[in-house]
Amino acid sequence: MSDEKSSTELTSGHPEKFTDPGMPEHRQRRADVEPAASKRAERQVAALFGISVIGTIGSMVAYFAIRPDGTTAGTRLSNLTLGLGIAFALLGIGLAAVHWAKAIMSDHEVVEERHEQRSPDDVREAAVQKLDDGIADSGIARRGVLKGAALSALALFPLTIAVPLVSSVGGDWNVSKFRHTRWEKGMRLATDPTGRPIRAADVTMGNVFHVIPDVSEEERESHEWITEKAKAVVLLVRMDPRDLKEAPDREGWSYDGIVAYSKICTHVGCPVALYEQQTHHLLCPCHQSTFDVADGAKVVFGPAHRPLPQLPIEIDDEGYLVAQSDFHEPVGPSYWERLK
């Protein structure tokens, strides 16, 4: 029987048990055998923690000294400098921890046999002792420079998150302002970003215009304009008036097939700007919510729950498109005072 079994094993090529290959021979690192290399690695780790400290300080300087000034360039510069500071603060800590573990801490291979989930008391005491030995082996107790650098980096890094959060307390929490935009009766529709007023005659069949309120140049340069523009952006489309399905309460909100809807998706606020001329559908590129422009911008697909708010428009005496009023409902995604 045993001969048959051995023959089967040899034929199939699958032995019942594999030989334990054991642990490979341990290779000493330069830092383990050369005191100078160990000291150099310690200085490198300390320098990386120092980079983290500099990054934290830099992010604080950027947060307070380089504030958004209301312009696109100013906002971009503020975000860039703040982001770089936080990146160096985190990167320094991460690289220092990795280099410390690879170059300074013990790298001896250890094998532990599996055992019950609840270890005996003597084993638990031995585990605690190993942790103590590991701490001692890391050299943190006798490496004052490393300990100071690590503690400084770890202690200062939370400031990159805490300071912006704390400084925002007491800010503008008036959410009611999101119910209204800059649009008002008689305000002309202008192209974005040039600010050129739009004549109805300039909007040909199938044309799409990205629209902002026609405000003064002084207002466009103000700090508040970015917020106001973000709420008021509109997409203007012209189609065959026979294709329009206007609700009774919205009769007269369009002009000769020209309709204007908020560009802000009612799902999470992405810009809805992809227009399909044949289907009259507007597509949100973020989560594929789709709105039917010919039928009150109702949702025909995707996670959005509400139609896009429509801006009532007409023309003035000079043939320019103007707003009849502000939107009749809040623009943008849902918030806590809405059911949807």
Automatic annotation (TrEMBL):
<dbReference type="InterPro" id="IPR036922">
    <property type="entry name" value="Rieske_2Fe-2S_sf"/>
</dbReference>
<comment type="function">
    <text>Iron-sulfur subunit of the cytochrome bc1 complex, an essential component of the respiratory electron transport chain required for ATP synthesis. The bc1 complex catalyzes the oxidation of menaquinol and the reduction of cytochrome c in the respiratory chain. The bc1 complex operates through a Q-cycle mechanism that couples electron transfer to generation of the proton gradient that drives ATP synthesis.</text>
</comment>
<keyword id="KW-1015">Disulfide bond</keyword>
<keyword id="KW-0479">Metal-binding</keyword>
<keyword id="KW-1133">Transmembrane helix</keyword>
<dbReference type="InterPro" id="IPR014349">
    <property type="entry name" value="Rieske_Fe-S_prot"/>
</dbReference>
<dbReference type="InterPro" id="IPR045603">
    <property type="entry name" value="QcrA_N"/>
</dbReference>
<keyword id="KW-0411">Iron-sulfur</keyword>
<keyword id="KW-0408">Iron</keyword>
<feature type="domain" description="Rieske">
    <location>
        <begin position="231"/>
        <end position="322"/>
    </location>
</feature>
<feature type="transmembrane region" description="Helical">
    <location>
        <begin position="78"/>
        <end position="98"/>
    </location>
</feature>
<keyword id="KW-0249">Electron transport</keyword>
<keyword id="KW-0812">Transmembrane</keyword>
<dbReference type="Pfam" id="PF00355">
    <property type="entry name" value="Rieske"/>
</dbReference>
<keyword id="KW-0679">Respiratory chain</keyword>
<keyword id="KW-0560">Oxidoreductase</keyword>
<feature type="region of interest" description="Disordered">
    <location>
        <begin position="1"/>
        <end position="37"/>
    </location>
</feature>
<feature type="transmembrane region" description="Helical">
    <location>
        <begin position="45"/>
        <end position="66"/>
    </location>
</feature>
<protein>
    <recommendedName>
        <fullName>Cytochrome bc1 complex Rieske iron-sulfur subunit</fullName>
    </recommendedName>
</protein>
<keyword id="KW-1003">Cell membrane</keyword>
<keyword id="KW-0001">2Fe-2S</keyword>
<comment type="similarity">
    <text>Belongs to the Rieske iron-sulfur protein family.</text>
</comment>
<dbReference type="Pfam" id="PF19297">
    <property type="entry name" value="QcrA_N"/>
</dbReference>
<dbReference type="InterPro" id="IPR017941">
    <property type="entry name" value="Rieske_2Fe-2S"/>
</dbReference>
<keyword id="KW-0472">Membrane</keyword>
<feature type="compositionally biased region" description="Basic and acidic residues">
    <location>
        <begin position="14"/>
        <end position="37"/>
    </location>
</feature>
<keyword id="KW-0813">Transport</keyword>
